[in-house]
Amino acid sequence: MPGNPVAAMTIPLPIFCREEQQDTPADGPLRDTFGRVHTNLRISVTDRCNLRCRYCMPEDVTFLDRSEILSFDEIRRFTTVAATLGVTKVRLTGGEPLLRRGIDRLVAMLHDIPGLNEVALTTNGTTLSGMAGALWSAGLRRITVSLDTLDPETFRRVARRDALADVLAGIRAARELGFVVKLNAVILRGINDADIIPLAGFARETGCELRYIESMPIGADSWDRKSAVLAEELIETVAREFGPMDLVEGDPHAPAMTYCTNDGHRIGVIASVSRPFCSQCNRIRLTAEGMLRHCLFALFESDAKSVIRFGTDRELERLIRRVVWSKWEGHEINSAKFVKPTRTMHAIGG
Ligand code: SF4
Hints:
TIM Barrel, globular
């Protein structure tokens, strides 16, 4: 399967998992063997994207055939069962979720699932200005937009496409409608690290909450630690410009550490590499073609699509419990044991 970034190992759970299966909890919250309770489901609704961000996917990519991806009714069924197990928050991702026709209809379908108290969405913003109204009418209120630079040339270097103006227009349209907008910026040394301060300025100006993301070894391009701008350097750089920042207590399960400047502006840092937060992880992921992953960096995954299409809700429940129970302690990025997943980010959904 070399060369096909979508292919990942699809195997029945390994022996050690199967043994653990014997004692997979049959009821109660969605807990793993480290005591973490899972309440957050990330659903990739497509692997397709109209950008080619170098930290996410290769230029040349074979997208899934439409027949392979889950229908809205299948996504709703899976989410409904997951909600009975304690999932309270869903984040829709991609590829680029706004490329999925009728995405606003899916948002509305998920909104009235009992037990779910939040549906959010992460987008690259390129088509947001045209979609914001429909998403708002569907009940969406929180949106995260990827924005790595304010410079068109740098945008082209990172995303390998020209679309910065569309993204900025999308952010403004969402703000005008009243969306709570978070901005995610992956900072790559020597490519967009000059944008660290301009992005913070833009977030202030537009009333968005900016989160810097440490680049991770999960994209198409080779990754080395030196290319990542890590949390300490990011915080120092911002503090030099905007003054001292205090760490804000918040949701212990949230991936971002949030800081607040003296004048009340919040800035987040998602430090997967330098300050891993796996011990508080409450997330599971469903890929566009219905593979269930217990971790972004998981090396194996389970086929939920077959159970969604041919199984009972009880069987779906058991599968979800089994995958969570088999969850490892966390990524091994900082250890010699680290193995890069075969899937690239666009085929998992951030
Ligand atoms: S790397 Fe895996 S275990 Fe760690 S926080 Fe991310 S999804 Fe959770």
